[in-house]
Backbone:
């Protein structure tokens, strides 16, 4: 067996000790960890820059489109307002009570030997109905039956166009005066009729026709 | 192999290194990575907001286009209704207009008085006012009145007669005294 003499023992030991120096190893580990942290930071910074460029692109798009969107938004609000207002006005127009057809029906009901002296009518609040007061005189052998005929005619005629028709005598009394009708003297009666009805669908949708009757009360 | 024994100097250096390491980590996360992550998160939130606004804006613009098509009838109808109200105070133009209208219907005497005006409670009619008028026709015959009322109801859609009073004239039995209460909706100018 060959004999080896290590004449550099101390130098080699010192070299090994330097290599195994915990401080040096620690510094190396720290440097490695620092490098890792730096790379991680760079990776995050790169991602942030990428997101920033995306944000700029989105902001550019938004800046470009914003005036159009604002204009469209305002236009939508304006159109919605117009539609709602038009609908409300249409409701008002459609819910009106048309008086011309009513007057036409009344004129059809009055017989030749009856006369209306006063007509007072009003639409109740919120179109809940129509209230009419008819005052007049009737002449005939049985003037009360003439007035009753008028009442029946009103019920029949108004019932064709309106719902809930009620025609009631508030007053029906004989008058002392005598009237000459067709050369015959006839007694007279004074009447006051209260008419109530609801404007039915027919009355709402029908356009007002011009009265074709020219009979005068 | 036994671990090398550390000298006091080495232990001190290690301790300082450990403290430095902790401090470094603190600085790194507090002043570098933390703000970076926060700004990135804030940018992501902004992008999401803007993206949702962009998506919504597309819908809004589509809605505007489709609404524009749908509202053609309504807008023309609305313009026609607005055109019924001329410029100026209604008290200045409404009574003469009615007088002319009734004159055209063979009713020479017609006087319209403004009773009152009220604002609408409905929000959609906030730009409109209801005017209540009293229209007096001192001398008219029933047939002409009927025709005139029919014409008035057909030509003035925003006018609604609320009360009607017809009374015979004792002195002239062929004529009647007619009073109308009418409400008209007029745009605020």
Residues:
């Amino acid at each position: 067996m060959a004999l080896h003499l290590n004449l550099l023992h101390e130098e080699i030991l010192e070299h090994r000790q330097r290599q195994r120096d915990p401080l040096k190893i620690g510094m190396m580990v720290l440097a490695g960890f620092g490098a890792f942290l730096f790379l991680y930071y760079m990776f995050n910074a790169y991602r942030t820059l990428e997101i920033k460029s995306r944000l700029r692109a989105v902001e550019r798009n938004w800046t470009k489109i914003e005036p159009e969107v604002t204009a469209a938004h305002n236009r939508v609000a304006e159109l919605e307002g117009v539609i709602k207002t038009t609908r409300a006005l249409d409701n008002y127009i459609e819910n009106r009570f048309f008086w011309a057809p009513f007057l036409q029906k009344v004129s059809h009901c009055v017989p030749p030997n009856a006369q209306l002296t006063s007509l007072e009518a009003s639409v109740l609040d919120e179109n809940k109905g129509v209230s009419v007061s008819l005052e007049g005189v009737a002449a005939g052998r049985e003037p009360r039956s003439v007035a009753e005929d008028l009442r029946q005619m009103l019920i029949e005629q108004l019932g064709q166009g309106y719902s809930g028709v009620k025609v009631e005598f508030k007053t029906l009394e004989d008058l002392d005066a005598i009237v000459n009708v067709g050369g015959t003297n006839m007694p007279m009666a004074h009447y006051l009729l209260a008419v109530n009805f609801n404007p039915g669908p027919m009355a709402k949708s029908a356009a007002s026709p011009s009265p074709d009757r020219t009979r005068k009360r | 192999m036994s671990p090398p024994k550390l000298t006091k100097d080495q232990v001190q250096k290690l301790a300082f290194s450990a403290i430095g390491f902790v401090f470094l980590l603190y600085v790194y996360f507090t002043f570098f990575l933390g703000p970076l992550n926060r700004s990135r998160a804030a940018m992501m939130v902004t992008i999401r907001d803007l993206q949702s606004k962009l998506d919504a804006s597309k819908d809004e613009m589509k809605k505007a286009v489709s609404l524009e098509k749908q509202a053609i009838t309504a807008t023309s109808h609305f313009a026609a209704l607005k055109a019924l109200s001329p410029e100026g105070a209604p008290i200045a133009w409404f009574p003469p207009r009615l007088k002319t209208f009734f004159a055209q219907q063979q009713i020479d005497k017609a006087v319209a008085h403004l009773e009152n005006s009220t604002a609408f409670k409905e929000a959609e009619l906030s730009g409109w006012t209801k005017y209540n008028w009293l229209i007096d026709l001192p001398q008219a015959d029933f047939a002409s009145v009927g025709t005139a009322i029919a014409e008035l109801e057909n030509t003035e859609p925003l006018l609604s007669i609320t009360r009607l009073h017809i009374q015979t004239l004792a002195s002239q039995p062929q004529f009647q005294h007619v009073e109308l209460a009418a409400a008209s909706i007029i745009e605020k100018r």
About this structure: Chain A touches chain B through 72 residues (CB under 8 Å). DSSP finds five helices and four strands in chain A. The beta strands of chain A are 114-123, 130-139, 163-181, 184-198.
